[in-house]
Specification:
The chain is α/β, with parallel strands linked by helices. The protein is built from 14 helices and eight strands. The longest helix is centred in the last third of the chain and has 17 residues.
Length: about 325
């Protein structure tokens, strides 16, 4: 391994930590976070030295009814500024824009008029041409841009290589390896990271990792990607995210050696807010149904339904998944 990747007792200054609690966590509670929660999260990320805070989606109000969601489904400029003002801090603000679910020409305004610093485009392999147009649009408007290529555990090698080649030639600054179904093991993440890095190196791009915790490997997979050169690392407070959730911010900051990161504010935030959320009706985190969908490389929607229905007939659920396969 090239020493520029760092060692277990050193740190790489190129690593950027991205807090995705409001966005991925918002999928758990329909983005129903209180203003106090969001303000405290913002202050915590600043104090902890986190590099980016994702405020949610830029979703189309023509597709999604605002009455059915909290404000961070749409991340209006005024709502973000209510929390951050002019964001007089080192923390950068980002939002996610899904291909086919965002009126990006209209709803993503010019950077000079926005407190947002970075647009994160999310795409499936078959949507890459549209994603490239979204990436170009955001770059022309003055933003940093990343792209999340989702569900790659379902993509064959040839299509993945072709898709990566298109994305690394786009205006994106960083291409994300995304374990959408929590199906990957560290050995697979190691090989995939090397593949992404090789493609990105030709055009001077960075690589990121967004992991899900179906097999309790989100943290392991995140640091595996980092050890092998990934620079942008996603995490959420107490792993809050869709289904099994994500890499725990608490774990990630305790692992990274960069003295700019401070775990203490995160622990205080977890004590004040996350423990209460865990006791509420909105559930996330490792559970047997999520393990089974992860092992079978299946979308977690069936596991989410299983858990919401209070089912504990795990053998029967497993057979249902096998039948769908």
């Amino acid at each position: 391994m090239d020493n520029t990747f760092g060692t277990i007792v050193s740190y790489r200054p190129d690593i950027k930590v991205v807090d995705a609690t409001l966005r991925d966590g918002g999928l758990v509670n329909n983005f129903g976070f209180t203003t106090e929660f969001v303000k405290d999260l913002y202050k915590t990320n600043i104090a902890a030295g986190v590099d980016y805070m994702e405020f949610g989606y830029k979703a189309s109000k023509e597709i999604f009814d605002p009455k059915d969601f909290g404000k961070w489904k749409f991340s209006n400029e005024d709502d973000i500024r209510e929390i951050v003002g002019d964001n007089d801090s080192d923390l950068k603000i980002c939002v996610m824009a899904d291909v086919g679910r965002t009126d990006y020409k209209k709803d993503i305004i010019n950077k000079e008029d926005s407190v947002i610093d970075m647009i994160r485009v999310a795409t499936y392999i078959h949507q890459i041409p549209t994603a490239i147009d979204m990436i170009s649009d955001a770059k022309e408007k003055g933003y940093e841009v990343t792209v999340n290529l989702m569900a790659v555990s379902k993509v064959d090698d040839e299509n993945l290589d072709n898709g990566l080649e298109l994305l690394v030639q786009s205006d994106a600054d960083c291409i994300y390896l995304v374990d959408s179904f929590g199906a990957f093991y560290p050995e697979q993440v190691r090989r995939l990271t090397a593949r992404y890095m090789a493609a990105a190196a030709k055009y001077g791009k960075k690589i990121g990792i967004h992991a899900h915790n179906n097999q309790q490997l989100a943290f392991a997979n995140t640091i595996e990607a980092a050890i092998n050169g990934a620079s942008y690392l996603d995490a959420t407070m107490s792993g809050m995210g869709r289904g099994a959730g994500n890499c725990y911010m608490e774990q990630l900051l305790s692992f990274l050696r960069n003295p700019k990161y401070n775990l203490l504010p995160v622990m205080n935030f977890v004590e004040k807010h996350m423990n209460k959320l865990k006791e509420g009706p909105d559930k996330w985190g490792f559970d047997l149904p999520y393990l089974l969908t992860g092992v079978l490389n299946s979308h977690p929607s069936s596991a989410i339904k299983c858990i919401k229905e209070g089912r504990t007939d795990y053998s029967k659920f497993y057979q249902e998944l096998l039948d769908m396969e």
